[in-house]
Write a structure and sequence with these properties.
Elements (H helix, E strand, L loop, with lengths): L1 H7 L8 H11 L5 E4 L5 E5 L7 E7 L4 E7 L5 E6 L10 E4 L4 E7 L17 E4 L5 H5 L7 E4 L4 E3 L3 E4 L2 H14 L6 E7 L7 H7 L6 E10 L19 E2 L10 H14 L4 E2 L9 H4 L8 E9 L6 E4 H16 L1
Length: about 325
């Protein structure tokens, strides 16, 4: 299964190689051109000679995680975080470096902590790979190595999936399947690097793109759980793909919002608004680059986003793909 394969891959900012190679293999023979730019963005062009609207589909390959910054004398590994709240880290299973050395994030036993109520700080955490000496660890681990979460793809409950990196492997998977389809438009698929550390890959891709419209596909916040007020839930699992009105990097044009809502309604595809202006996406780079390219922001709700494991509803993912195809074919 494509999404299972993509979420199993490790691809932290600047280390997206494994994800990129999977995507290249999936698209071989389905597109006219595949190229990688200097930022590591993968660009796929389909129907290059087709006339009419040129539409780009964008998603990011990178995921949140950690980075090795120091190895202690006892073999424990200290780390920095990329987009991760330290409160969720104790006991998380991880892979360290390109050889995927297995480890677990440890913390001093709670009964030895001075204040059990205090949230852990990154400096109080460490990675244990089962070796007791710095010299032994240094044979396997280097400073600057990425640290990715270890969380298998599991289907559970009522159409639910749990896995790491659903943000944004759901977007990557949707673009791959769209590019494999029979759409006749000129399409450019953009698989960006380093979104989680400041939309860096898309900043380069946007300045090399000449398209009429960008569909930016994401995994997004969902807090539809007991104890969270309705106004703060942002999205609802199972209610369909989310359409953004505005976020911290973009204000989306009403014309295109109305277009895609009309297509969804005509096609009987459920959808919902993303009910928050928090967070930003690669759309923020596309609509301000060069002379500006309008964007549509579509996403799949994901509970527990930016954690060792997220959860989504498969029906939302399937309806995202249906909506993209319906819009392109309309």
């Amino acid at each position: 299964m494509l999404l299972k394969k993509l979420t199993a891959a490790c691809g932290l900012p600047g280390f997206e190689d494994e994800v990129r190679e999977i995507i290249k293999a999936e698209l071989a023979g389905h597109v006219d051109e595949l190229k990688t730019d200097r930022m590591g963005n993968l660009i796929a062009v389909k129907n290059a000679k087709a006339k009419g609207r040129h539409i780009a589909l964008s998603a990011h390959m990178d995921e949140v995680g950690l980075c090795v910054k120091h190895i202690e004398k006892d073999g424990s590994i200290k780390f920095a975080t990329w987009g991760v709240d330290p409160r969720i880290l104790p006991s998380a299973l991880v892979f360290v470096g390109k050889d995927k050395i297995p480890g677990v994030i440890g913390i001093k036993p709670i009964h030895l902590e001075k204040s059990a109520d205090k949230a852990p700080e990154v400096d109080s955490l460490y990675i244990d790979i089962g070796l007791d000496k710095k010299e032994e660890v240094e044979k396997l681990v280097n400073l600057g190595d990425f640290v990715a979460f270890e969380a298998g793809y599991v289907e559970f409950g009522d159409h639910k999936v749990k896995a790491k990196a659903l943000d944004d492997r759901v977007g990557c998977a949707a673009i791959i399947e769209t590019l494999k389809s029979g759409v006749k438009h000129r399409l450019t698929g953009i698989f960006c690097t380093q979104e989680e550390v400041g939309l860096r890959g898309s900043a380069v891709a946007a300045n090399n793109l000449s398209a009429d419209l960008v569909l930016n596909l994401e995994g997004t916040i969902c807090a539809d759980i007991e104890g969270v007020d309705e106004q703060h839930r942002v999205t609802t699992l199972g209610a369909g793909p989310c359409l953004s009105l505005a976020d911290s990097t973009s204000v989306y044009q009403t014309k295109y919002i109305e277009e895609i809502i009309a297509v969804a309604e005509k096609s009987g595809i459920p959808w919902q608004f993303r009910r928050s202006g928090m967070g930003g996406t690669d759309s923020g780079r596309y609509h301000t680059a060069k002379t500006g390219t309008p964007c549509i922001g579509l996403s799949v709700p994901c509970r527990y986003i930016h954690s060792p494991v997220s959860a989504m509803d498969k029906r939302d993912f399937e309806n995202l793909k249906k909506l993209v195809l319906a819009y392109l074919n309309d």
